[in-house]
Recover the amino acids of this structure.
């Protein structure tokens, strides 16, 4: 991976692709109101501030808010699309609504491109592959995405999901350009490093790390109701937030600093929807974590750390 750093932002190559992603990525799922209602004008300001400050990687999906996040992101990017690296997804459209068929993938990207107001995305990802049938993903979904790449509708293609072994099984069976993993590298868990990274490096597959705040657990307000982690995880995070406050520190900032300082991923995607979120992410990216506080929090989390939950058809 090659690093270039104009201003304060660092850019890293996504695997063997030509894409140089900002180390801080803009996760656009909150634009679909999945963490609470978003004020559209504020979301517009957040997207523009992020671009002005060097964040060039934006990730969205038709699943987030059932197309609302894509609609809002497309609107916010009007006139600035060419400045950024845009990733969306296909195959997942609702909590229980999946279509990994070749026809579904084609219809999915056509509709996404309209909402995003563009003629191509830079990265098209099969969304949450552990919910699909492995042979269909390998023999039908990924080949359909490669055809869309040949047609210029996507510059590169990848897969996303939660169970690392499901992602690895698919990437072993069919070449992909990138893997997006979430909730596997942050203050509460770090098995990404031992399970996925060397596999991806051997094959020059780019890795994107999502959810450095463990999908809201590591924020002061806590996680939304749909969060899959058990109560002990949320309780430990509340204790950690209090401990940080007592020390004049901020748990989300520490969590972001921890994830941003991991160099083996091309980008860390933070879910953002306000200028305050963007500013706090940028501040965290500019300084390393306080080692002493980090150790205290890691000790506090040790009884609940590396907890994983079931997802899709996978066992872990
Ligand atoms: P996250 O861990 O980034 O947490 C997001 C929450 O933290 C939001 O409520 C946000 O408002 C809040 N937040 C952001 N910055 C903050 C700060 N500095 N201080 C306090 N609170 C802050 O979780 P996420 O949004 O789920 O993950 C990031 C992105 O990664 C998503 O938006 C999405 O683009 C991607 N993602 C993809 C998948 C997948 O493909 N299956 C899964 C999860 C995430």
């Amino acid at each position: 991976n090659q690093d270039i750093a104009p201003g304060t932002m660092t850019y890293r190559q996504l695997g063997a692709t030509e894409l140089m992603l900002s180390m801080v990525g803009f996760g656009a799922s909150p634009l679909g109101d999945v963490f609470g209602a978003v004020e559209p004008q504020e979301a517009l300001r957040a997207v523009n501030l992020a671009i002005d400050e060097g964040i060039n990687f934006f990730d969205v999906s038709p699943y987030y808010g059932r197309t609302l996040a894509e609609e809002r992101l497309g609107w916010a990017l009007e006139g600035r699309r060419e400045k950024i690296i845009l990733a969306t997804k296909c195959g997942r459209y609702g909590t229980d609504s999946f279509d990994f068929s070749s026809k579904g993938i084609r219809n999915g990207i056509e509709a996404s491109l309209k909402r995003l107001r563009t003629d191509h995305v830079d990265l098209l990802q099969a969304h949450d592959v552990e919910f699909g049938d492995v042979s269909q993903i390998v023999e039908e979904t990924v080949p359909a995405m490669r055809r869309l790449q040949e047609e210029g509708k996507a510059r590169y293609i990848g897969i996303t999901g939660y169970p690392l072994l499901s992602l690895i099984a698919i990437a072993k069976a069919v070449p992909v350009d990138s893997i997006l993993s979430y909730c596997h590298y942050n203050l509460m868990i770090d098995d990404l490093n031992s399970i996925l990274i060397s596999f991806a490096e051997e094959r020059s597959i780019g890795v994107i790390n999502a959810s450095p705040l463990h999908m809201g657990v590591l924020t002061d307000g806590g996680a939304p109701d749909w969060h899959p982690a058990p109560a002990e995880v949320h309780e430990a995070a509340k204790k950690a937030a209090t401990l940080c406050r007592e020390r004049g520190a901020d748990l989300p900032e520490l969590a972001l600093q921890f994830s941003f300082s991991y160099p083996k991923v091309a980008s860390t995607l933070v879910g953002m929807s306000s200028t305050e979120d963007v500013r706090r992410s940028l501040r965290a990216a500019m300084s390393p974590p306080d080692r002493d506080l980090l150790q205290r929090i890691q000790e506090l989390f040790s009884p609940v750390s590396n907890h994983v939950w079931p997802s899709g058809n996978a066992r872990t």
